[in-house]
Amino acid sequence: MSASSTRKQWAAVATGCSKTAEPKLDDGEFCEVKLLPLQTFRTRLREGQLTDAAIAYLALDYLGLL
What we know:
The chain is an all-alpha fold. The protein has a domain at 35-66. The chain contains 2 helices and no strands. The two termini are 21 Å apart. 0% of the residues are buried.
């Protein structure tokens, strides 16, 4: 997110999950659910393949994995 953006951003950290249904979104919302093994997540972060690296690092920090 750029420094001049005023949009709200939400992130969730979940472990041991499985996808059971598609998200039900309101008009104008967008959300993409991806289940990744931790190592794949870290590789994609390191290679610049994630759309928001700051949130990704916060998630790893929250999990004590930095």
